[in-house]
Amino acid sequence: MMQSLILIPPNLVFRVSRVVEIQTVSIAIASASVVAGVIYYALQIRQQTKTRQTDLVIRLYTTFASKEMRQTWEKVTTREYLDFNAYQEKFGLSDVNEVGWFFEGVGVLLHRKLIDIAVVDDLFSSPIKISWEKMKPVAEGERKQFGRPQIWEWWEYLYNEMQKREQKLQQSKV
C-alpha cells in the first residue's frame, strides 16, 4: 500500500509541466500586452501633441492673415522715419505694438519648443525678417528710453533663430 502512494503517475508530471507552460505563456502574453499598450499610448500622445501644435500654428497664421493685421504690418514695414523718437512722435506705437506682440508670442512659443521652427519658417519667415529689420531701430530706441533691454526680446530671438535656420539651410545646399 505504501508503494502506491509514493508512485507518481507519469501523466500527472505531464499535466503539471503543461500547467507551468500555460502560466508562463500567459504571463508573457500579459507582459507583451502591457508593453504594446504603453507603446500605443506613447504614439497617441505624440500624435496629439503634433495635432495641437498644428492647430496652434494655424490659429496664429489665421490671426496674422487677417485683413487688420496685414494692414498694420504693411504700415509698420513701409513707414519712413529717422529714429524711435521720430517714429513715436509721427505714428505712435500702437501699430508697432500690435505687430511686435504677435511676433513676441511666436518667439516665446518657439523658445519653449511649443511650435516647430520649420512650420514657423514656412509660414512667417519673410514677415519676421522684413518687420524686425525695419523695426529694430525703434525697438532699440524703446529699450533705451524705458531702460528695459528685454523689450521685444522674443521678437528679436525669433528673427535670430530664423537667420540661423536660413544659414543652416544654405550650408546644407552646398
Write up this protein.
The protein starts with a helix and ends with a helix. Helix content is 86%, strand content 0%. By secondary structure, it is mainly alpha-helical. It has helices at 2-6, 10-64, 67-78, 84-91, 94-111, 117-146, 153-173. It folds into two domains: 9-50; 65-173, no CATH class.
Shape: elongated
Helix/strand structural class: mainly alpha
Please tally the β strands and state the result: 0
What's the helical proportion of residues?
A: over 70%
Q: How big is the Rg?
A: 32 Å
Query: SSE order, as H and E?
Result: HHHHHHH
Q: How many H/I helices?
A: 7
Average pLDDT over all residues: 88
- Give the domain tally: 2
Provide a short characterization of the protein structure.
The chain has seven helices and no strands. It has two domains: 9-50; 65-173, no CATH class. The protein is mostly helical.
